[in-house]
Amino acid sequence: MAGDIMWFAWATQLECAELVAPTQQERAARALFMAGVALGCSMDYSTTGRCRTRVEYATEDAQSWHRIWERARHCARDFDRAAAEVERAVLHPHLR
Predict the structure, then answer these.
(1) In angstroms, rounded to a whole number, what is the distance separating the alpha carbons of residues 86 and 23?
(2) Rg (CA), the chain
(3) Which long-range contacts (CB under 8 A, 24 or more apart) does 23-32 make?
(4) Element (H, E) at 17
(5) pLDDT tens, residue by residue, 11-67
(6) CA dist., res. 76 & res. 62, Å (int)
(7) Dihedral of CA 66/87/13/42: which sign?
(8) Which of 4, 39, 80, 95 stands 20 to 30 A from 10 (CA)?
(9) What interhelical angle do 4-20 and 79-86 show, nearest 10?
(10) Angle formed at CA 91 by CA 87 and CA 95, multiple of 5 degrees
């Protein structure tokens, strides 16, 4: 993904699909994909400095990487939580 617009486009596509067809089976897959967006954009932004992300992700150590992975892992089964993480991690990095 080359650029922040790609992360937002992917997240938006998942949000739209969820609004159109929110079945349980599809919701589980979308939660996993949205967690991937949360993980990917946070990792991208923290390593490249392309955009702002959470302060706790900004350190260049293994703990930062671990925090990103753990948060994404916790979001992987809950679409709403994963979508909120994308918003918090990218749009509102000052929120915890």
Answers:
(1) 21
(2) 13
(3) 27/79, 28/77, 30/79, 31/75, 31/76, 31/77, 31/78, 31/79, 31/81, 31/82, 32/76, 32/77
(4) helix 4-20
(5) 888 888 888 877 777 888 888 888 888 888 888 888 887 777 777 777 777 888 888
(6) 21
(7) negative
(8) 95
(9) 150
(10) 80
Work out the burial of residue 17: count CB atoms within 10 Å of its CB; fewer than 13 is exposed, 13-18 middle, 19 or more buried.
Answer: middle
pTM of the predicted model, to two decimals?
A: 0.77
Chain mean position to CA 10 = 10
Residue 68, C-beta contacts closer than 8 angstroms, at least 6 positions apart? 39, 42, 43, 46, 57
